[in-house]
């Protein structure tokens, strides 16, 4: 491999790092992928509530990474929850930047039991709530709430991977995304 790409992920969570490494390896198969996770502050609560707070958390992490590190791409994933008109759900926002351009994506919703969502409103983090409900340990660095609630047919990593895959579209077709209407 003659080319390499350096990717900085705004988290040291191995689930997030592995999701980022997977999508960059998929889109750049002839490149060596150097994917590193760093502690990047979200500047939102540890458990974001609402789409706006969740998106801003991911954007803040990418901004921090761009200001502190040199890389080809920067990305961050932020999990949040919200009470929608049809019920509570958890989801994630993803942000990818190449330093000059930025793309924002969002995962699908996972319906969340109301009792678990209510615990989030009291200040608990979803990973901790899930560990208590399912008698697990540190599930947020494994399959996450998604894995537990889908009997591992989907995982936290698979959900991040899908959202990151979709968020790459503007980098793959920049001329279309920059056309004037």
TrEMBL record:
Enzyme class: hydrolase
EC number, as in UniProt: 3.6.1.-
Keyword line: Hydrolase
Protein name: Inosine/xanthosine triphosphatase
Organism: Pseudoalteromonas undina
């Amino acid at each position: 491999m003659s080319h390499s790409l350096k990717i900085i992920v705004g988290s040291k969570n191995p689930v997030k790092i592995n999701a980022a490494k997977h999508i960059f390896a998929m889109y750049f198969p002839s490149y060596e992928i150097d994917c590193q996770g760093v502690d990047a502050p979200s500047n939102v609560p540890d458990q974001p509530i609402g789409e706006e707070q969740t998106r801003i958390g991911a954007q803040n992490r990418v901004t921090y990474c761009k200001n502190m590190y040199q890389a080809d791409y920067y990305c961050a994933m932020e999990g949040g929850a919200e009470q929608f008109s049809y019920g509570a759900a958890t989801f994630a926002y993803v942000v990818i930047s190449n330093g000059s351009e930025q793309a924002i994506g969002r995962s699908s919703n996972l319906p969340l039991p109301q009792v678990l969502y209510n615990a989030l409103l009291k200040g608990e983090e979803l990973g901790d709530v899930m560990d208590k409900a399912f008698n697990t340990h540190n599930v947020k660095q494994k399959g996450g709430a998604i894995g537990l609630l889908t009997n591992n047919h989907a995982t936290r990593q698979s959900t991040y991977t899908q959202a990151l895959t979709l968020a790459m579209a503007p980098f793959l077709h920049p001329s279309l995304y920059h056309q004037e209407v």
